[in-house]
Write a structure and sequence with these properties.
The protein is an alpha+beta fold. It is about 40% helix and about 20% strand. The structure holds zinc ion. Zinc ion binds near residues 209 and 246.
């Protein structure tokens, strides 16, 4: 679109006589030749006296192209002018317009203008959507951009197909037979089965290797002829024997325990050189299937033949090239014609193809020479991992983090394992070229880490040492590893106030055990004590104690000190819950006096009264281990729906005994429980409560108004007590 030339064309302008009543916008059109091409130019004006000379937008349409010029801002747009289903959107020049009136508000100057639009190449009345002048143009724009998008998608698809083809053509041939032989040797360990069925002193044997079937005597006979009969050792399930027909070793399997087919599958990789210096890793699934053929005889099934079959399917190829992201191609099968094809994306129906670990064909190492991976040290890594790795992950990480070569060669295999699994949290400086700076540990401890193959627990401790600017001996570090400190908060606190040796000694003393004995009982004792000790320290600190105090750091009796902290910690939590309940349910305290007048009752043995406050209910629930302290009961009491009453012995009025819930208005006994949701002294107490409720309903319960003064003073005092909640 020749934008500059189009912008230079003078505006059409609307004569004042063409103004339409009730319309918000008026459109006018013209057809102009720009660069020998016909352009349909449609301008939209605001229907106002002063706005008839300069349009808001100029919509330009050619045979194959389009564009909208916003006059005021000077911006060109290739968006639709009214959305893809225009009835739900208003035109772009009328952001605040009302949708349902859009047709009435946006009119066209004359029939000639409308004809100009309708007769422009490509414009057609498609449906109800093309009822307005801008509907016609919008549909045309929609058509053109859809075509463009499709063309773009086609081009992309073709590019991808070309890429796939090009990669396939540059992928070297592979000797699949060799690959299967390798799989049989290394993965399936050339496993064969000798199926058998015993009948008296005889056994029928079928060999999966040679497929032969024959009868043999396994128990010596007493007859003369039996000396000349073919003998085998007695077949035993799970044992190994030699096939008397072909000499192969095989596992004995009784015929009755065999399904007619049985298979094992595994994965393996082969790496090949790709183009100049790249590599392609090919991922195969190999399968070994064992079959036993049976025929029906009069006395049951009879083994007739046996065989084994190896097969392999290539699943994925990963192409590595210098300076390029690895390209993964996947082998798929079309769901409609069943044909195999290669695709460059993984999505395949609902299943994702996953590349996992597996053995690597040895010829890979030869192919690796002279490629970008010649220094990757992957062969060393493979050896350290017993030949079972995911080379794709390793090489992807190696391309990202070439230090992997150094780490592998130093024997820091556990560190490499973490990196291969993308756990980069252990890296201190990804750009460092030295192990100590790369991992964030002290230089002098690299050797110690190597001795431990880069184990994560020792690495953590070495990183802490560096971070805390400490200098520990190898022995101290090994001792810390032995303690296997999980959460580090506690011992970081301790180390602020004492040296590491003192801390180790202290734990050793509490445990009564030595470090580094190699005795698992000593180690687990040390670990358990360290756990208790740091748990104690954490609680002590959280409760706000001054941790520089040596009595707190090194209590005489750790178990006692720990228990004290647990109790204190629990109390603190309980107090917090009481404060929360008091805040949330303030009405319980306010209702108290009124409810006391209504519900208070006592006889020689027991008294019953409503709860004074939310906190008191929480405490009752905690002491009696039932759920009355929950928000549900507190809420009902707070909202005057039901009342929580405390039934207590007169001799111990402060000791919770039975908690009662009663309907505040209907006076219905809803439930009553003692400790642990049990009903203590059940018959007796039930009778007591029945009498109480009856009296309550007859108005024989409650404190008389007149009894006021003395009682009230007492209540005040009680209230004070409850209010004194620890801050
Ligand atoms: Zn055989």
């Amino acid at each position: 679109m020749k934008k500059k030339a189009i912008e230079k064309i003078p505006y059409i302008g609307i004569e004042r006589t063409s103004r339409k009543k009730g319309a918000k916008y008026i459109a006018a059109t013209m057809v102009k030749l720009v660069g020998h091409e016909k352009h349909l130019i449609t301008e939209v004006y605001r229907n106002k006296k002063g706005d008839l000379d300069v349009p808001l937008v100029r919509i330009v349409l050619t045979k194959k192209d389009f564009g909208t010029f916003f006059v005021e801002s000077g911006v060109w747009s290739r968006a639709l002018i009214a959305g893809s289903s225009w009835c739900s959107k208003y035109p772009v020049w009328d952001k605040g317009g009302r949708e349902y009136d859009a047709g009435k508000e946006n009119v066209i100057r004359s029939d000639e203008d409308l004809q100009r639009i309708k007769s422009f190449p490509g414009v057609e009345e498609k449906s109800w959507r093309s009822q307005t002048w801008y509907g016609l143009i919008n549909d045309r724009i929609d058509d053109i951009s859809t075509k463009e998008r499709r063309a773009r998608e086609n081009r992309r698809w073709e590019r991808r197909q070309q890429g796939l083809k090009e990669r396939a053509e540059n992928t070297p041939e592979i000797d699949e037979q060799k690959l299967l032989e390798y799989a049989d040797r290394v993965i399936f360990r050339e496993k064969h089965y000798l199926y058998y069925k015993k009948r008296g002193s005889w056994a029928r044997v079928a060999c999966s290797k040679c497929g032969g079937v024959n009868e043999y005597r396994w128990k010596p006979g007493i007859s003369y002829e039996s000396q000349f009969q073919r003998m085998i050792d007695e077949p035993r399930q799970g044992g190994f024997g030699t096939c008397p027909m072909c000499g192969a070793r095989g596992e004995w399997k009784p015929q009755g325990k065999v399904m007619d087919s049985y298979s094992k599958a595994a994965h393996l990789f082969v790496g090949q050189k790709y183009k100049e210096t790249g590599m392609v890793f090919r991922y195969y699934e190999v399968e070994k299937e064992y079959q036993l053929g049976l025929i029906c005889e009069n006395n049951g099934p009879l083994m007739e033949n046996a065989c084994e079959e190896l097969s392999g399917t290539e699943i994925a190829r990963v192409y590595f090239e210098e300076g390029r992201k690895p390209q993964k191609d996947y082998h798929k099968q079309s769901t409609w014609d069943g044909k195999d094809f290669w695709d460059d994306c993984n999505l395949y129906g609902k299943e994702n193809i996953n590349i996992s670990e597996g053995p690597i064909l040895p010829e890979t190492w030869e192919a690796m020479k002279g490629t970008i991976f010649r220094y990757s040290a992957m062969q060393e890594y493979e050896a350290a991992e017993d030949g079972y790795i995911n080379p794709v992950d390793y090489l992807e990480r190696y391309m990202q983090t070439p230090q992997i070569e150094m780490l592998t060669k130093l024997g820091l295999i556990k560190v490499v394992e973490n990196l291969v699994k993308c756990r980069y949290g252990i890296v201190a400086n990804e750009h460092a070229d030295r192990v100590d700076t790369f991992l964030g540990i002290r230089k002098e401890h690299v050797r110690l880490l190597i001795r431990h193959q880069g184990e994560e627990n020792i690495l953590k401790i070495l990183k802490d040492e560096k971070r805390l600017e400490q200098q520990w001996t190898d022995e101290q570090i090994e001792n810390l590893v032995e303690l296997s400190l999980e959460s580090r908060n506690g011992w970081m606190v301790v180390l602020e106030h004492m040296g590491v040796q003192k801390m180790l000694n202290l734990i050793g003393k509490y445990a009564g055990a030595e470090y580094g004995t190699g005795c698992s009982r000593a180690t687990s004792r040390l670990r358990a004590v360290a756990q208790t000790y740091f748990d104690y320290i954490n609680m002590r600190q959280a409760l706000g104690y001054d941790m520089s105090n040596s009595v707190y750091l090194a209590p005489k009796d750790l178990d006692v000190a720990h228990q004290v902290m647990v109790t204190e910690h629990n109390k603190k939590e309980a107090d917090a819950r009481i404060r929360e309940a008091e805040q949330k349910f303030p009405m319980i305290r306010k209702h108290y006096r009124r409810l006391r007048k209504k519900f208070f009752y006592e006889d020689e043995d027991f008294c019953i009264r409503p709860a004074r406050s939310a906190g008191e209910i929480v405490t009752e629930g905690r002491v009696l281990h039932h759920c009355v302290g929950g928000d549900n009961y507190l809420g009902k009491h707070n909202d005057d729906i039901s009342t929580i009453l405390f039934l207590r012995s007169k001799t111990e009025p402060d000791v919770p005994y039975i908690t009662v819930e009663i309907g505040t208005n209907d006076l219905k006994l809803m439930q009553w429980y003692g400790a642990h949701d049990k009903k203590p002294d059940e018959d007796n107490m039930r009778r007591w409560l029945d009498v109480y409720v009856t009296k309550l309903k007859c108005g024989l319960v409650g404190t008389a108004e007149a009894a006021g003064d003395g009682e009230d003073t007492e209540i005040e005092a009680e209230d004070e007590q409850v209010l004194a909640v620890p801050a």
